[in-house]
């Protein structure tokens, strides 16, 4: 089956055909680094991590760029509040972002370019727009002429007339058209700034992505992604800027993930219901967060609540316990001469085909997870047998590992499956043998605090997470 992607631009699923066979250039808009990232930022970070992983599983060479907006009004205000500088604010929250991303089991992007490291390229891009008449300067600011780009609105499926009707009274009088947007902002007294042909200032929000995408990935991207809220105006403006310079499509496929609600309410600062990733990671296991994010189709809304997290915890426990049981049985498994593995191999291949078919259908992760549970059921049936060969167990384990390389539902929790716990169990067994009951009880309590349950089996003591 061919991979098909729902293209926001055409509102249709299309066969995926990269510009260069075997290679994929993917750009996803990253955070404005003025604060800790929140649950809404985590959804595209996790989803596009899975997109990248799946493409790599199909043997594509993926060049994945996620930018950092490290200068804008929010950073300037934050620096004023903290009594520090914009670069220091950016460094602090980029470090926090990287820590959170690692905590969520997200693979690092190929690169994370920063606005402040690409000012010459941004200025050069604006100069091209001014030179070809698509931009103009007024009072040290530079604006893009939306009226010069007939396709403005094609991504969000709006037109300029409709957009004009929605413009608020009091629009900047220096604009020729109310829908024109800023490319370069003249610096206010005391603000961080860079020299430019139009005077000291800094880039507008939209231009940075156009300039960095062209620099690091070329004039046309295979995939451009981000949250649903970026369709308009950010991605619409990116298209207008880039295509006005290159005359080529900015991206072949546009992908946007849906919103996250908190307890069935839209997440917003006014409601005060935002949840940071930093906070989530202190209360919820990374694998559970990933499962929650992937449990609904990426284009659908997603509701965060105690109930949905509890459901994700139960699901992750089922998968993790099945894998742990396989590993435990594997330690004492003995080969069975003449064992027929063909039926198991065929069943696993069928489950893999189900998984790939769902992922090929616009990255349908909830249905792909259903295939993972098919594997859980198959594994549990085998584990009920008195004797299971290591070959059969290894086949099952390899299938789980294949799924995990794409979804990351087990690797994100590997820190809990470490040698320290195994060593403690050995120490507890030795303490019991030597009748050191105090130490044995201490270890039992310590493991209980870590959420580790000990179970006696015919093969010896094994452990699992609650």
From TrEMBL:
<feature type="short sequence motif" description="'HIGH' region">
    <location>
        <begin position="31"/>
        <end position="41"/>
    </location>
</feature>
<keyword id="KW-0436">Ligase</keyword>
<dbReference type="InterPro" id="IPR014729">
    <property type="entry name" value="Rossmann-like_a/b/a_fold"/>
</dbReference>
<keyword id="KW-0963">Cytoplasm</keyword>
<feature type="binding site">
    <location>
        <position position="209"/>
    </location>
    <ligand>
        <name>Zn(2+)</name>
    </ligand>
</feature>
<protein>
    <recommendedName>
        <fullName>Cysteine--tRNA ligase</fullName>
        <ecNumber>6.1.1.16</ecNumber>
    </recommendedName>
</protein>
<dbReference type="GO" id="GO:0005524">
    <property type="term" value="F:ATP binding"/>
</dbReference>
<dbReference type="GO" id="GO:0005829">
    <property type="term" value="C:cytosol"/>
</dbReference>
<feature type="binding site">
    <location>
        <position position="29"/>
    </location>
    <ligand>
        <name>Zn(2+)</name>
    </ligand>
</feature>
<dbReference type="InterPro" id="IPR015273">
    <property type="entry name" value="Cys-tRNA-synt_Ia_DALR"/>
</dbReference>
<feature type="binding site">
    <location>
        <position position="238"/>
    </location>
    <ligand>
        <name>Zn(2+)</name>
    </ligand>
</feature>
<keyword id="KW-0030">Aminoacyl-tRNA synthetase</keyword>
<dbReference type="InterPro" id="IPR056411">
    <property type="entry name" value="CysS_C"/>
</dbReference>
<dbReference type="Pfam" id="PF01406">
    <property type="entry name" value="tRNA-synt_1e"/>
</dbReference>
<feature type="short sequence motif" description="'KMSKS' region">
    <location>
        <begin position="266"/>
        <end position="270"/>
    </location>
</feature>
<dbReference type="InterPro" id="IPR015803">
    <property type="entry name" value="Cys-tRNA-ligase"/>
</dbReference>
<dbReference type="Pfam" id="PF23493">
    <property type="entry name" value="CysS_C"/>
</dbReference>
<keyword id="KW-0862">Zinc</keyword>
<keyword id="KW-0648">Protein biosynthesis</keyword>
<dbReference type="InterPro" id="IPR024909">
    <property type="entry name" value="Cys-tRNA/MSH_ligase"/>
</dbReference>
<dbReference type="GO" id="GO:0004817">
    <property type="term" value="F:cysteine-tRNA ligase activity"/>
</dbReference>
<feature type="binding site">
    <location>
        <position position="269"/>
    </location>
    <ligand>
        <name>ATP</name>
    </ligand>
</feature>
<comment type="similarity">
    <text>Belongs to the class-I aminoacyl-tRNA synthetase family.</text>
</comment>
<feature type="binding site">
    <location>
        <position position="234"/>
    </location>
    <ligand>
        <name>Zn(2+)</name>
    </ligand>
</feature>
<dbReference type="GO" id="GO:0008270">
    <property type="term" value="F:zinc ion binding"/>
</dbReference>
<feature type="domain" description="Cysteinyl-tRNA synthetase class Ia DALR">
    <location>
        <begin position="354"/>
        <end position="417"/>
    </location>
</feature>
<dbReference type="GO" id="GO:0006423">
    <property type="term" value="P:cysteinyl-tRNA aminoacylation"/>
</dbReference>
<dbReference type="Pfam" id="PF09190">
    <property type="entry name" value="DALR_2"/>
</dbReference>
<comment type="subunit">
    <text>Monomer.</text>
</comment>
<keyword id="KW-0479">Metal-binding</keyword>
<dbReference type="InterPro" id="IPR032678">
    <property type="entry name" value="tRNA-synt_1_cat_dom"/>
</dbReference>
<keyword id="KW-0067">ATP-binding</keyword>
<keyword id="KW-0547">Nucleotide-binding</keyword>
<dbReference type="InterPro" id="IPR009080">
    <property type="entry name" value="tRNAsynth_Ia_anticodon-bd"/>
</dbReference>
């Amino acid at each position: 089956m061919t991979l098909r992607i729902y293209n926001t631009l055409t509102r249709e699923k299309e066969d995926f055909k990269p510009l260069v066979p075997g290679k994929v250039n993917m750009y996803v808009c990253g955070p404005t680094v003025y604060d800790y990232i929140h649950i809404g930022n985590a959804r595209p970070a996790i989803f596009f991590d899975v997109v990248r992983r799946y493409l790599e599983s199909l043997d594509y060479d993926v060049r994945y760029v996620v930018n950092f907006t490290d200068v804008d009004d929010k950073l300037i205000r934050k620096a004023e509040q903290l009594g520090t500088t914009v670069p220091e604010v950016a460094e602090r929250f980029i470090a926090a972002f990287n820590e959170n991303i690692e905590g969520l089991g997200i693979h690092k992007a190929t690169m994370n370019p920063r606005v402040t490291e690409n000012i010459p390229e941004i200025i050069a891009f604006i100069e091209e727009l001014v030179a070809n008449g698509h931009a103009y300067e007024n009072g040290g600011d530079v604006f893009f002429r939306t009226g010069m780009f007939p396709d403005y609105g094609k991504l969000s499926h709006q037109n300029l007339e409709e957009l004009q009707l929605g413009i608020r009274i009091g629009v900047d009088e220096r604009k020729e058209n109310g829908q024109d947007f800023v490319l370069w902002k003249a610096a206010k007294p005391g603000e961080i700034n860079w020299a430019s042909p139009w005077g000291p200032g800094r880039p507008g929000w939209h231009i940075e992505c156009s300039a960095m995408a062209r620099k690091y990935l070329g004039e046309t991207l295979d995939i451009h992604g981000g949250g649903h809220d970026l369709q308009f105006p950010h991605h619409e403006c990116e298209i207008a800027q880039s295509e006005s310079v290159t005359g080529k499509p900015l991206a072949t496929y546009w992908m946007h993930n849906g919103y996250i609600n908190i307890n069935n309410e839209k997440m917003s600062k006014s409601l005060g219901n935002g949840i940071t990733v930093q906070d989530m990671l202190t209360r919820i296991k990374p694998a559970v967060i990933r499962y929650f994010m992937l449990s609904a189709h990426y284009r659908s809304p997603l509701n965060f609540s105690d109930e949905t997290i509890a459901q994700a915890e139960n699901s992750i426990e089922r998968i993790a316990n099945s894998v742990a049981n396989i590993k435990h049985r594997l330690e004492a498994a003995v080969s069975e001469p003449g064992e027929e593995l063909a039926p198991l191999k065929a069943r696993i291949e069928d489950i893999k085909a189900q998984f790939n078919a769902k992922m090929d259908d616009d990255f349908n992760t909830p249905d792909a997870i259903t295939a993972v549970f098919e594997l859980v059921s198959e594994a549990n049936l085998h584990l009920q047998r008195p004797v299971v060969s290591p070959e059969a167990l290894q086949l099952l384990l390899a299938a789980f590992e294949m799924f995990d390389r794409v979804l990351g539902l087990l690797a994100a929790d590997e820190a809990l499956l470490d040698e320290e716990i195994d060593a403690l169990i050995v120490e507890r067994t030795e303490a019991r043998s030597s009748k050191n009951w105090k130490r044995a009880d201490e270890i039992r309590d310590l493991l209980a605090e870590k959420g580790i349950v000990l179970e006696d089996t015919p093969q010896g003591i094994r452990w699992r997470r609650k």
